[in-house]
Structure formats: structure tokens, C-alpha cells
């Protein structure tokens, strides 16, 4: 066998649920390459982001009063396809075992041919989602990396260059700003030692409730039709929420509240630290981000179908919660959210922070 034909990834030897090779191919096609920039621009981007994340951790820790252990943050500037593969590896490593266990418990493995078709179909669906998201994301902290890669922060180079050119941004201000956001996520998980496990446990609980029985799925669809006729939260929570069982919805809403806290806290910190650092273009960058997230037509419909619009709303809802609590009671009281899973805000408390303060503060 020729050396070039050898697959070193070991994916072909793993009895997984998803055809990750197909997923990657579909995702890269959907993603496209994006603007490449010149060699000088790419080098400058790597250098500036590396410096920004190195200095951001001290700024974030100093402002929030949170401790940040473990390896310091390191920037990895990558293309869209590299971002896709990095995230697929993370899911394959941390979440797919839960999916496989659920499928085996409910429906068995099935025939080899049927399993292959199912894996490819799931791979194509996931690839399409990842390809779309890879065109939007600029930075990301992955809390589920193996120990050797802990502290690594991804930046999608083409998307950063594209935003800077499209909106006329001052490069150094913008790169510092997005670095603050991602490093805040790193500090959240470094400071809160139980958070990684809690996130995975929540995901596992949701997956365990997945219904693979045809009869049960038909019952869920019947319930959905009744809710559509009667009116419910479907317009605000989308199609994915509509197809969930009641137990799944409860877990989903708790996870939404947690993600709103994490995203909103990162947005609050990056804006407050940037303002204190005297970044004069902050208002312009906020307007840019709002404009970039605003879509219409078919893209808006697609976002609602896959739940991507929920992530966008998390930033504003969560940031308002953090801002209210800090202004009302101070950072020390707000930091009680990191004490245990029980001190995280409940779904209704994210929208009404006074209820959280009455319970925890």
C-alpha cells in the first residue's frame, strides 16, 4: 500500500455513529475558503492574536476577580476547513460515545449496510451545519481539548480578515476585542473546575432522552401538531424545540440558560475591559457585530431551523443578566454563579435577574 493512502486518523477503525470523513467533505464544500489575504497579512494576524491572548488573561482575571489556572491561552489561527475538523474531532471525542450508547440501547446496531447509510446521512447533515457555522465564527475556546492542547483558542483567519475589510475596522482594536471574549471563556472553565463535567452531563441527559422508537416519534409529531394549532413557544424557540419531548425540553432550557450565562458573561467582560482600556472604536465594533448577526430571508429561516438564532439571542440576554447583577450587587456577588451547578441561573432567572439575586445573592 502506498504511504499516501494510509489513514493515520484511526477513524476507519472506530465503530462510530457518524461518518466523519463525509461530514468533513460536506462541511468544507459549504464553508468555502473565504479571503486568503497576503502572506504578510496572515503573518501579522498570527502575531497580533498571539500577543493579544497572552495579555488578555491577566486583564480578564483582574477585572472579574476570577482565578485562571492551567496553561496560559494560546492562539491558533486557522482556515475554515481546519476549524471544521478541529470541532468534529472534539465532538467525536467527547459526545459521540454518548450518541452510540443511546442508539445501541434503543435500537441496536442494525445491518452493516444500514449502519453505513445511516452514518453517511448523519455525516452529511452535520457537515452542512458545521460548514455554515464556519463562515460565521471568528474565535472559539474549546473546553473539551485533551490536556496537551488545554488553553488553545481557535481564530478563523478568513473570517477575521473579511470582517475587518467589510466594516472598515481598526485591526488591532478588533483583534484585542475578540481575544478578550474567547479568553473570558477560558477563564470561566479554568476557574470553575466542575463546569466541564456539568456541561457533558447535561448533554448526556438530553441524549439519553432521545426517542428512536417509531411509535413514540409519531406520538411526538401528533403532540407537535396540537401545539402548533394551540400556539406555544414554537415561534421563539424554533423547530428543534418543537420536536423535543417534555423531558428533553426541560434539560434543553436549563442548558440554554447556562449557555446564555457563559456567552453573556464573555460579552460583558470583553466590552467592559475594552472600554476601560480606552479602545476608541468600541461603539463601531458593537454596531458591526450587530449588523453581521442580522440576517433575513432564507438564511434566517435556516438559522431558526437549526437553532443558530438561539445562540445569537444568548449574547444579549446573558449580557443583560450579568450587567444587571454586577451593577446591582457587585462582581463579588455575581461570581457566586460559579460556586456550584445549583447557583447557576434558572431559565426564568436569566430574563429576571432579581429572582436570581433573591435566591442566591
CATH architecture descriptor name: Up-down Bundle
Q: Reading side by side through the largest sheet, how are the strands ordered?
A: 1-3-2
Low-confidence stretches: 1-15, 221-237
Q: Which structural class matches the secondary elements?
A: mainly alpha
Q: How many domains make up the 3D coordinates?
A: 1
- CATH-defined superfamily: Zincin-like metallopeptidase, N-terminal domain
What order do the SSEs take from the amino end to the carboxyl end, as H and E? HHEHHHEEHHHHHHHHHHHH
What is CATH's topology name?
Lysin
The radius of gyration is 21 Å
The first-to-last residue Cα distance is 65 Å
Your description of this structure?
The longest helix is centred in the last third of the chain and has 31 residues, at 246-276. With 361 residues, the chain is mainly α. It has one domain (19-209, 245-359): Up-down Bundle (Lysin), CATH 1.20.150. The termini are far apart. A three-stranded mixed sheet has the order 1-3-2. The protein has helices spanning 20-31, 39-64, 80-94, 96-107, 112-134, 157-167, 171-191, 195-208, 214-230, 234-242, 246-276, 282-293, 297-306, 308-329, 331-334, 347-351, 353-359; strands spanning 74-78, 139-141, 152-156.
